[in-house]
Amino acid sequence: MRFLKSDGGLIGVLPVLAITQLIGWGTIGLPAIVGRDLAADLGMSLPTVFSGTSVLYVAMGLCAPWLAKSFARHGARKVMMAGTVVAAPGFVLLSFAREPMLYFAAWIVLGMAGSATLSTGTYIMLNEVAGRQAKSAIGALMLVTGLSSSIFWPTTSFLSGLVGWRGTCLVYAAMLILVSLPLYAFAAPRRSVAKDNGGEPTQGVDAPAIPRSTFGLVVAAITLNAFVNFGLSAVLIELLRAEGLAPAQAIAFGSMLGVIQVSARGLDFLGGGRWDGITTGLVAGTALPVAMLLLMVSEGATWAVAIFILLYGAGSGAMAVARATIPLVFYDQAEFAKAMSMIALPLNLASAISPPVLVSLLTQFGSRGALGLTFACSCATVLILVLLSRRRPSMAAAAAI
Length: 401
Hints:
Blueprint: H1 2-6, H2 9-27, H3 31-42, H4 46-74, H5 76-95, H6 100-117, H7 120-130, H8 134-145, H9 148-187, H10 212-242, H11 247-270, H12 277-297, H13 302-330, H14 333-365, H15 367-389, H16 394-400
Helix pairs in contact: 2-7, 2-8, 2-9, 3-4, 3-9, 4-5, 4-6, 4-14, 5-6, 5-7, 5-9, 7-14, 8-11, 8-13, 10-11, 10-13, 10-14, 10-15, 11-13, 12-13, 12-15, 14-15
């Protein structure tokens, strides 16, 4: 808890972000529970219904660069308030959908709102409060947001049984306006200038010049890992079944993933800022290709599947923290918002295309096709992180002490 002692402002902002991010990520997980009802009412196939999530990620990615100036000029609080105001009509629009066009239009609106309110905005707000000391705070927040599906899947199931999926959408719209918006408006901190180690304000310090090639490497590492993590998580059950596991076995192993991911984030959080995002990425990223290689050569042995779940769960859980904190190594408070907004475009596009790409490979070439591509992407990520580790600016090392 050292980071809380070093910056009391985090004590106030973390509960606000924890609640609003649980609501934000939990509510857009609606199709996971009511997908079949949506398909039946809208006359769409189940895969088409789930492609609404891909549309959301594409919209988030395309809107993110346009929000960079707004985050820098107005601060995360105002941008996230505006995004929440946009998200509520998105759920209202979804509740009125009677055909695919209106259904996908609703997901576009929700994606536009998500680019302002989900993940990127929270990292920017934490950076505004804590500067380069935000890494541990981001890790702490991820411990909570990793439970969004555990909380909102049963909530969605209960509400849909009570008022139907359309009524559930209206309840979620009201929740955004009555819970999330007031929290941002009255409980979230207004932008302040963070200080590193009690010295001068971060904005008053000239940041070292960061080459464009370094930013390109940061983007490449984050995007490649997002492709692997989002894609494998989406097709994990089918991947395990392709390895020869019975459906019940595949679900049993898959259900362990979330617990392992959250546990890995917890271990990184307990590090208390003793290492930066690149170190987290190197350790966690190395576990991923090892896990995939083991599964490829084991011919579906149960012991190998268990080790795969352990290594992949731990690696992907910690890499989620690394994706959010690697930019802290290179960018000060003034540049962090712009960098995160620019990174969000390729990251969200990779998140959108990875599930259909891996499903296609799984269908045409079996598990080896999907594992082969993710293995190559994971190896490339580790190599890029090695290069980034050699480019750490000296001020990042000083800030982490």
